[in-house]
Amino acid sequence: MADFAAWSRGIQARMESVLARVLPEAAIAPEKLHAAMRYATLGGGKRIRPMLAFAAGEAVGVDAARVEYAACAVELIHVYSLTHDDLPCMDDDDLRRGKPTCHVQFDEATALLVGDALQSLAFELLASPEACADTATQVAMLALLAKASGSRGMAGGQAVDLAATGKTLELAELEFMHIHKTGALIQAAVLLGGMSGGALAAEARTGLERFAHCVGLAFQVMDDVLDAETDTATLGKTAGKDAAQGKATYLTLMNAKEARIYARELIDDALAAVSIFGPAGQRLSDIARFIIERRY
Prior knowledge:
The chain is an all-alpha fold. It has a single domain (about 1-295), classed as Orthogonal Bundle (Farnesyl Diphosphate Synthase). It is about 70% helix and about 0% strand. The protein has a two-stranded antiparallel ribbon. Strand 1 (about 95) and strand 2 (about 100) form a beta hairpin. The radius of gyration is 18 Å and the shape is globular. The model has no long low-confidence stretch (mean pLDDT about 95).
């Protein structure tokens, strides 16, 4: 995994540079909003979704310079969701990526606007001519990101999560929530990375979709385990918050050992799904293994 560690650091550095370039400078009016957008986005995060986009692009032979647009768009949607999730009306958290959350550092109204502005910027970038050479595919990419972000994706999953607080869900109900809340954007990252080069062949799309489905669920399983087992300093966010708030998690249905076994089964399925790409799919496989082995 040493080679993957170097690759992932390279993607993180690349994304930091690209995001710093596409975000409005803090000196541009409205200065406070732009400063807050940069604060929320830069200087932290695993950048898993951009990594998935670049890895999927590599699997199907897309120029990495094109994938930058999809990777940025998905990451901006992700950061917007975190900024809104942390608000007092949602999860009411004061720590994100090892620093005060946006509404704590600035104020609630500014944090709300940060999410709105990052969402708009994501679609602006994905609509750039450089994001995809094929217009029809680019329109499909925009529609895919919109669905993944909306009521039938991430926002809908968050609504289910809020409604389920204090309740015990069956496994199918829990996975329905996470397929939308977390999995939809992870699937968008994978598919958008592949689609940056044009329409995907049927076999490639099926493989990427299956991979993303399994990785998205495994990611959430491990998030639940780490939230229960890891300290706040390591996580970079408040540990144990889900249990304290009565959130439905995998650990309300199984113990940590069983959850890890389940996550491993999902990752094995993900690895099988991308075996069709041969050596070109190595980075996707590396990310899948990282998800199961990560400590934060």
